[in-house]
């Protein structure tokens, strides 16, 4: 657990590795295009005891690498240990998604893996052996998610435009697909699927620019001959984004999503939706009787002056330099009593972090600062340690601000420069940069990262994963490269050469 003074720390790059064995096992055309070899997904095992060394799996086209992370006080010691290597020997397999489950009887960790062969393969991660295979999709599978409420329930998003809800319980062995989300939901390949913390709601998104929210019925506890089919989502919109949507996730009852070409992650809410309300039935979902509607919602069937929109955009996080790349996933660390941290890696070798707990504290500090300026009898408010002051520098001394080989926050710590100081006691440049990172008053503004780390060489981030306790963050991407970030390291100076921050 971090000390209270360290709770505001954002991760530092600790290590990285490149797994190259895929090259010699893939088809000749892939061997000739090694730049296309990559890790597409990474997930931490969520069921380990508190305080234990976290374990993650990284999925590439033919292999799944399972690693354990251990804290070290020596910065030259790699904290990452490979504990299992699984190879998919199916000729047509090219995997891009994974998620965790566990055997309800033995507690052995199960690792679900999927890709373009339309199968969900369930491996025993302890032995590395294939335990079972789930079939039914009519196209490749691009994403997997495990229900936070039940480790036996897994969702898969497919090119066949459907989401399947699978049960790994023994009672459903003959018919593991217990629910099918399809019908009028999507018209093109799906790229992302996510569960709500309650396990009763699912988000789906993909190439058709549509984001759907599905309310799940009670899933069966006994064998069923055929799955329940849900034809209509309870919320559907193509207005949140203007391009294909490759990542969507719940943040409480709010939603995070991103789309290709937009260079932003959007935080938004569905008006009228609350997970504390009774779950709506499938019959209450709006149909497509009016095809001209780009958004339809069971939570706001009709608009009014009090509720003029079906959804509201809240914040936008700036993710520059993504270009034409898609299949790039963010990840939000969100746990009770911990700061929510959003992480994302772009197409230009840079990982970005935002601490959402900083926003209300910044607003309070600025409000207290203004009050103290009005009433000189009030003591000046205490500035948060992460609000760094930008000191005015002459152009020829700008190089002094750079420290190659180390990551750092987005600003330089320095004393206030009396030249250019405003009535709020800080220079205009400082106030402007604070606003760019922490001001949430403009829902259409782009919030810059609170910290960003650049690495040497070309790197396209594909997926981010957080350890259950938030100490570790792993980013995977092209060339089968994995970046290991750490918070609260015992050796505060531990870092990896070749990384720089801005």
User: Total helix count?
Assistant: 4
Class computed from helices, strands and strand pairing: mainly beta
- What is the radius of gyration computed over CA atoms, rounded to a whole number of angstroms? 24 Å
- Structural domain count: 2
**What would CATH call the architecture of the largest domain?**
7 Propeller
Low-confidence stretches: 30-35, 397-406, 411-420, 492-498
Here the CATH topology of the largest domain equals Methylamine Dehydrogenase, Chain H
For the largest beta-sheet, the strand count, sense and barrel status come to: 5 strands, mixed
Strand content: 25-35%
The CATH superfamily of the largest domain is: YVTN repeat-like/Quinoprotein amine dehydrogenase
> Strand order of the main beta sheet, please?
10-11-12-13-17
Quickly name the level 1 CATH class of the largest domain.
Answer: Mainly Beta
Keywords: Repeat, Transcription, Transcription regulation, WD repeat
Biased composition (Polar residues): 289-302
Family: Belongs to the WD repeat ESC family.
WD repeats: 134-168, 183-214
What does this structure look like?
- The protein is mainly beta and 502 residues long.
- The chain has 2 domains: 14-276 and 306-357 and 449-501, 7 Propeller (Methylamine Dehydrogenase, Chain H), CATH 2.130.10.10; 360-438, no CATH class.
- 7% of the residues lie in helices and 34% in strands.
- It is built from 4 helices and 31 strands.
- A hairpin with a 6-residue loop joins strand 10 (141-146) and strand 11 (153-158).
- The longest helix is centred in the last third of the chain and has 17 residues, at 358-374.
- It is globular, with a radius of gyration of 24 Å.
- The relative contact order is 0.15.
- Residues 30-35, 397-406, 411-420 and 492-498 have low confidence and may be disordered.
- Residues 289-302 have a biased composition (Polar residues).
């Amino acid at each position: 657990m971090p000390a209270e003074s360290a709770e505001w720390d954002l991760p530092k790059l600790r290590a990285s590795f490149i797994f190259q064995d895929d090259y010699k096992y893939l088809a000749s055309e892939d061997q000739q295009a090694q730049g296309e070899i990559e890790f597409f997904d990474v997930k931490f095992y969520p069921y380990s005891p508190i305080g234990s060394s976290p374990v993650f799996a990284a999925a590439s086209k033919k292999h799944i690498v399972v690693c354990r992370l251990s804290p070290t006080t020596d910065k030259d010691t790699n904290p990452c240990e490979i504990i299992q290597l699984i190879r998919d020997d199916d000729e047509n397999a090219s995997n891009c998604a994974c998620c965790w489950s566990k055997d309800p009887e033995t507690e052995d960790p199960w690792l679900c893996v999927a890709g373009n062969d339309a199968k969900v393969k369930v491996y025993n991660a302890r032995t590395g052996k294939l335990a079972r295979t789930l079939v039914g999709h009519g196209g490749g599978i691009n994403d997997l998610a495990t229900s936070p409420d039940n480790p036996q329930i897994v969702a898969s998003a497919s090119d066949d435009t459907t989401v399947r809800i699978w049960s790994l319980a023994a009672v459903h062995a003959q018919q593991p697909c217990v629910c099918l989300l399809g019908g009028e939901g999507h018209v093109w390949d799906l790229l992302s699927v996510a569960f709500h913390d309650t396990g009763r709601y699912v988000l789906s998104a993909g190439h058709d620019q549509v984001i759907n929210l599905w309310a799940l019925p009670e899933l069966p506890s006994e064998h069923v001959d055929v799955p329940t089919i849900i034809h209509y989502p309870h919320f559907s919109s193509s207005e949140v984004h203007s391009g294909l949507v490759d990542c969507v996730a719940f943040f409480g009852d709010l939603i995070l999503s991103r789309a290709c070409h937009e260079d932003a992650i959007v935080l938004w809410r569905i008006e009228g939706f609350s997970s504390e309300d009774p779950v709506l039935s499938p019959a209450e979902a709006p149909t497509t009787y009016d095809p001209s509607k780009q958004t339809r919602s069971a939570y706001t069937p009709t608009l009014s002056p009090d509720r003029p929109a079906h959804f509201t955009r809240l914040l936008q996080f700036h993710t520059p330099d993504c270009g034409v790349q898609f299949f790039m996933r963010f990840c939000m660390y969100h746990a009770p009593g911990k700061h929510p941290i959003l992480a994302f890696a772009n197409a230009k070798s840079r990982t970005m972090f935002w601490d959402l707990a900083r926003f209300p504290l910044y607003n309070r500090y600025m409000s207290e600062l203004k009050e103290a300026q009005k009433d000189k009898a009030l003591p000046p408010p205490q500035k948060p340690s992460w609000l760094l002051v930008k000191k005015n520098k002459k152009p020829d001394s700008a190089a002094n601000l750079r420290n190659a080989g180390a990551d750092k926050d987005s600003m330089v710590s320095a004393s206030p420069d009396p030249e250019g100081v405003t009535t709020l006691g800080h220079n205009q440049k400082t106030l402007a940069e604070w606003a760019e990172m922490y001001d949430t008053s403009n829902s259409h503004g782009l919030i810059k990262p609170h910290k960003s780390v650049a690495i040497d060489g070309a790197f396209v981030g594909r997926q981010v994963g957080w350890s259950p306790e938030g100490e570790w963050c792993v980013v995977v991407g092209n060339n089968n490269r994995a970046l290991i970030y750490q918070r609260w390291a015992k050796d505060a100076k531990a870092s990896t050469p070749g990384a720089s921050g801005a």
